[in-house]
Write a structure and sequence with these properties.
Elements: E1 3-7, E2 10-13, E3 18-25, E4 33-38, E5 45-50, E6 56-58, E7 66-71, E8 76-81, E9 90-96, E10 99-100, E11 104-109
Parallel strand pairs: 2-11
Antiparallel strand pairs: 1-3, 3-8, 4-5, 4-9, 5-6, 7-8, 9-10, 9-11
Length: about 110
């Protein structure tokens, strides 16, 4: 059983930056990791994914503004977000190999 613990969410003004972190425990080998988000009244959507070897995938809505990275030694994935917009406001979930974190709130004020 893999446990994922997110951190780094918060309130930021439009144009600002945030860095989310997610630490995985309970498995010695974590393969795919990523971030999803869900805004009120909307479906959960992909933000970014990263494979163990570093291959990345981004949603078009965040491409160029977000960078996903990982530290395999720490089983930790990061999401650096910049040029944040009010529409980025959502609960951000960490995901890894079918497991989900509890989510961390990101709120962007205009």
């Amino acid at each position: 059983q893999v446990q994922l613990v997110e951190s780094g969410g918060g309130l930021v003004q439009a144009g600002g930056s945030l860095r989310l972190s997610c630490a995985a425990s309970g498995s010695s080998t974590i393969y795919n990791m990523g971030w999803y988000r869900q805004a009120p009244g909307k479906q959960r959507e992909l933000v970014a994914l990263i494979g163990r070897g570093g291959t990345t995938t981004y949603a078009l809505s965040v491409k160029g503004r977000c960078t996903i990275s990982r530290d395999n030694a720490k089983n930790t994935v990061y999401l650096q977000m910049s040029s944040l917009k009010p529409e980025d406001t959502a609960l951000y979930y960490c995901w890894s190999d079918q497991y989900w974190g509890q989510g961390t709130q990101v709120t962007v004020s205009s």
